[in-house]
Structure formats: C-alpha cells, structure tokens
Amino acid sequence: MDRLRELLSKYSKCFSNNPGLTNLVEHEIQLVSDQPVRTKPYRMSHRQNEILKNEINRMLKLGIIEVGESDYMSPMILVEVAGKEPRPCIDYRKLNGIIRTEYFPLPNIEERVEKVSAAKFITVLDLSKGYWQIPLSKTAQRYAAFCTSFGTYRPLRMSFGLKNAPYFFSKLMAELLNGLEDFVVPYLDDIAIFSDTWESHIKHMETVLQRIKRAKLTIKPSKCKFAQQNVKFLGHIVGQGFRTPSEIKVQAVLEFPTPCTKTQIRAFLGIAGYYQKYINLFSVIAAPLTDALKGRAKKGEIKWTTECENAFRELKGKLIDKPVLYAPNFEREFIVQTDASNAGMGAVLTQLTEQGEEHPILYLSKKFSEVEKRYCTTEKECASIVFAIKRLHYYLDGNSFLVMTDHNPLVWLNRNVSSNPRFMRWALALQPYNFRIVHRQSRRETGIPSNSRRNPISKERIPEKKIVDTKEDRTPVSCYGCGAPGIIRSRCHTCNPVQQKDDALSSSLNQSNFYSFSSERNPISIIQISICNTEAAVCADTSATHSVAGEKLYHLLKQKGLNFEEKTMQITLADGRTQTTEILTTSVDIRIVLDLQRKQWYFTETSHRKYNFVKAPPNINALLTVDPEPHVCQFRKNEGTHLSLPQREEINSLLEKYEECFQPGGEPTPFIEHRINTRNHLPVAVPPYRMNPSKKEILKQEIDRLLSEGIIKECESPYASPVVLIQKPNGTFRICIKYRKLNEITVADTYPLPRMYDLLHQAKLTPFMSTLDLRAGYDQVKVHVEDQDKTAFVCPFGTYRFL
C-alpha cells in the first residue's frame, strides 16, 4: 500500500473536482444547412431560475461558458431526477437536426466487462466532468450558443446534448490510451485498469496517470476505486474471474411496479434485459410480456394476464438468486450446450476449470416465431445449435469447441442435407467452425433445466415381428458369363459350375478393388455418395483433359474383349501451345456398385460412352516462373523450354530496365480516380463487429501496414462500414470492408468487362506469352477527394478512410 500512496502523491495534480482542458482533440461542428436555428428560452418557475442562475455563475467562474451573442440559439432547460441534484442541459434538438453526423465506434460494454472481470487487481478512474474537458472550436462555439431568460451565452467546452459528443469523447479515450489495450479499457469517462499481480498493477497505474497528466485531464477523487479485488464497473460487480449484477441495479428491477401500459413493459424489459446473459431462457420466460406488446397502439393499456404476472415475478426471482458468470479463457476449450422446447430455444456457454468444474460464461435464448414453432423436434434442436454458434461467433471463431445436445441433430443433419433445403443451409452455415458434437444423456448434469417436449420412454419390451425386406424399382444383376438376368455366374446353370468364392465378380466386389491412376497432372478421386439412402462409390470428374490408364487396366480390358482404336489427339498446353500425343479409344460400360455387403448385388447401367486412354503421360512443354520471395520474379529452366539463351538475356535486360515497376509502394495511377455517386442519400453508418483477441491482433497489424503504405488514414466521417477478416486458402487473412449499406445507395457504373473466352482464344494463337499480376491492384487507384469520406470504415481501433 505504501507504493500506491507514493504513486497517488506523485500524480496528485491529476486529481481535482474541476475539469481540465485537454490538448488531444477539439470538438468541431459541421452543418449540412446554412439556415441558422433559433429557439426562444423556455419559461421556468422562480425556484428553477434560481438554480439555473447559480449553475450559470459556476460555469462562468470555471471558464466553461462566456457571455456572448450568436445567430444560432438553443434554449437551456433544467432536468430534475428524484434523489439527485437538478442538472442544467441545453435543448439542442433543432441544432442536431442540421449537424453532420461524425461516426466513431463506441466501446462494447460486454467485451469490457469480461476483460476486467478476469483480473485480480482493478482500479477505476472517473474523469471530472468529462465532456467539459474537451474544447470547442471557434465555429462550434457560435453554433452551440444557448439562451436563458436572463442572457445569452457561448460554450467554450463540449456541452451535453450535442449530437456527436459521445463519439468525440470516445475518440479522446482512444487517443489517450492507444497501445494500452492489454490492461486498460475505457467506457466514456470511466477508465478501468486491471492486472493479475500487484507489481504489474502499480506499473499499469503509473503508465495511465502519465498519459492523463500529459493530456491535461483531471480525475474526480470521490468516484475512484484503487487496487480493488472486486469493484463496480458498468453496472456489474467484477473481479477475481467472475462477475455478478450490481445490487443497486437489481434493486431497481425488484422495486419496479407492475406495468399497466406498453411503455412500462418496455421499461421493465429494458432494465431486466441488461442482465439477460445471467438468466437462462430469458426470452422464453419473457415471452408473455413481449406478446403483450403486440398491436398497433404503442402506448395503450394492456391486458395483464396470469401468464404476464408469472413471467414478471419469475424474472425478478432469477435476479434475486444473485447469478454469477465467469470470465472466458481463450486458451481453454469452450462448451456450447443447447436445448429447445415448444416455446423457444436456449444455450449456455461454459468452460471447464483445472479442477474439472464447469462454469457458465453466458446464457442465450430466443423465442420461437410462429414459423419456427411449426418445426419438427429435430429442426428445433438443429435451429438452437445454429442460433447458439452464430451468436457466440466472437468466442468460437478460430477455436475448437464442443457442442452438447440431448438430440444429436447434427449427425442426422450431415447425413440428410440433400433432402431438406433448410438443413442444407444450416450445414453450410456451420462449415467454417471447428467443433465436435456429443450426445448429452442427462440434462441434470448441465446448467439447462429440463424443459424438453419429449415424453418419457417406455421400458416395456415389444414382441419381435419379422419384417420382410422388399425391393422395388431395382435393376437385377445379370450374369456376365451368359447374360442371363438376376443371377451371378456361380448360380447360373448354363455356365460352367464354379464356387462362389472363386467367382471373379464376387471376389472383385468383396475386395473392393478400385483401379487408381496416378497422374500428378490429372488426379482421379474416388468419392462416397448416397443414392436412395444407399451408400455407393463413384469416380469424380476432376475436369482433367485426359486420363492415364495403367498396364493392369489395359490388359484387363483386353481380356474382356474390348477393342482399342489407335488415334492421335491435340492437347492444349497451359502456355497456349498445342501438342500431339497418341491415344487409345474404347467404349467402356460404367456400372455403379450400390451395396457390397448384401448377398445380391444391383447395378445401374449407363449408356455406352467412349473414353480416351494413353499408355503413358505425355511430356508437356512449358516455361514456368516461380516467386520464392515477395516482389522478386525469377526464371528457372523446365523440360521442353523453347527460349534460347539470347532470348532469355533480352528478357532479363528488359526487366532490369523497368525494375522500378516491380518494387512495392509507389504513387497511385494518374489515369483514373474512383468516384462514388450516392446522389442525395443520407450517409449510412454501421457499428463495428466484435472480434476475439486473436482476430484483433491480426487486424491491428493490417491497419498499421495500410497506414504505413499511405493507403488509408485516420478520419472523422458520417459514413461508417464494418471490417471483416476473410481467411485465404494459404491460412492468412485479408481485410475486407462490408460496404453492403453503402452499395445500396451508390449509383452503379457500367464498363464492359473482357470476355474470358476471347482472352483464352487470343492466348492460344500466340507463340509467346507473359503474364503480369498487379500488386494489390485496387490500392493503386486513387479515390476522389470528395468521395474519400464515403469509404470510411470502423474497427475497434478507430475510423479510417481510403485514399
């Protein structure tokens, strides 16, 4: 504790009840209309005027406002809340209507609470009048002027009620704590410092206090909590690896009166819904309350039924039990447990500790729609798994996890995706995830209560009943010796008698001897398929230009009496040239083996087709280029290279002459600029997507690279599109911007794209060909200055735009 006292004494000037004045950001206001807005002052009571005068005098003394005049004027009002001091605010509604929206991502509350709850030592700092510590520009002072019944004033600091104030304050926190994300999380004027050891916590506190002192900000001492093991943060009690709802907030839920109107129901669901991740099946329990909100009247009276009263009391009772959630550990495997009933679906995300205890991280739930209620049991169980995995993408993306269910729907889903389009969509949606499914035998072992719609299973034995297997619409096997239908050679009386074990067809089928043709250029694969719920093996077409048959297959076909016709074939090479090779042509009867385990076999005969075979793979001549290092192009010799030594020297000299064309970086092309025509549409803004720690690190590196190369720059823009990371085939990630909303309001331009067939035809007729690939071609086209703000994108690190 002595070190903590010394640290606080060292930075004592940072603690004050009076607001500081930062030098990091300045609040600027840009308007979309030149028409000034003016509103006369509101009439107030004598008591309210006295309170307002005292507050005006205090703000004048602190240098927050000054007496002045302006052609823009907004009225001041007094907001009174029971149990709190009256707070003067300015009614900026008309001004906000003509202010250009500036977008900066607000922090995610859930992410910050989880990070802080995992720490052992926590310090919470609260800035003194945080908004008043940001200066207003001269232009903004003119626009933000306000009036009272006893004078007009101009604010010098950022005022409450301005449209873009939260975004500017979030930007201040981002710049103040840039690079400290591992141990500091801000949310508006609250700053939480968290550490796992005492030594590291003291160092982290000093680092943050140094930043605050350098930024000329001040901290309110009475609202700070230093080096606590459990502390209140954003409505939660966090610390020591777990979190629980704040008692004050829970008390507000418990004291909420019985709703009489739809507005009151929405208010209750808003307060209780803030803690819905603590309550299992929250949406299912609250279903009667949400159903009461249906109807055209938004503020009318409701019909308070017994179901509504039970749901109202049950939600309160869930919070009385003081539920606890634990902080996630991304180094351990996650467990997703799901359940579905007739009313809705629920899920819980858990993890096992080193002692083998299963701790809940959060609960999810969803009320079934009218369409979903008509799903069968398997569809409901599948829907609950898909819902849970999609909602838990932040935790599960890039990690292997376990899915536990009592119905085992995904096994059924994987086998029957072709029979139901809905199952096919769900199966495709789960393909990017790495998980395994386990059939949970008992619900009592999990945190999900038993609310299944399944009836108890009877243990009485049922008498056996012999069922005759009938086959319909099947093509019987024919004897390959004499052609008689329905029998094999060992049972054919017209053929020479043989034992079944010596039957060539039986032996071949039972051994599953598939001939494989090895060819690096044209691989042939055998895949398993299902035909009428019967497993089968087929040879897949890999788009090879020719197939290479081995000597074994060639002699086998010759023994069967097949005749081969010798021909020549022109093969088109990758470089556009053609080559002649000898082939053998024959007609082969393709048959599909439906079942190898039954005593009887059935075949599906196809029409006779002609297939080409070659005795050996032909030598293909090509000139290859390799790229062992980025930005370096080298040539190597390959069999059949037609370039002579003088030709290669001429190419090398040409490449050396234009060596700068192959260097990274450089200026964008001067031939064209990218324009984005949105006509008169209002700007569109979408909040950033939540990313897990591993994806954040990748995104941070990519953002830094684009900044260093001058492709993007930090900005303030009314437009905002979210960032996503797309994994490439080589395992690396590519940053992509989801411009879906922007594209909807953008006028499409047209320009003829070249036809692929024409390009290939031209390449085929030329004796020499070289291919060039532009490095990040889109990044070499400059965006017009007027449209750069439209390309703005948001991520957890700020707002950026393309240049």
From TrEMBL:
Is Nucleotidyltransferase one of the keywords UniProt gives this record? yes
Q: Might you give the EC number(s) for this enzyme?
A: 2.7.7.49
Q: What class of enzyme is it?
A: transferase
Which UniProt keyword terms apply here? Endonuclease, Hydrolase, Nuclease, Nucleotidyltransferase, RNA-directed DNA polymerase, Transferase
Could you tell me which Pfam families the record lists for this protein?
RT_RNaseH, RVT_1
Care to name a GO molecular-function term for this sequence? RNA-directed DNA polymerase activity
Q: Where is the Reverse transcriptase domain?
A: 1-238
User: Has UniProt tagged this entry with the keyword Metal-binding?
Assistant: no
Q: What is this protein called?
A: RNA-directed DNA polymerase
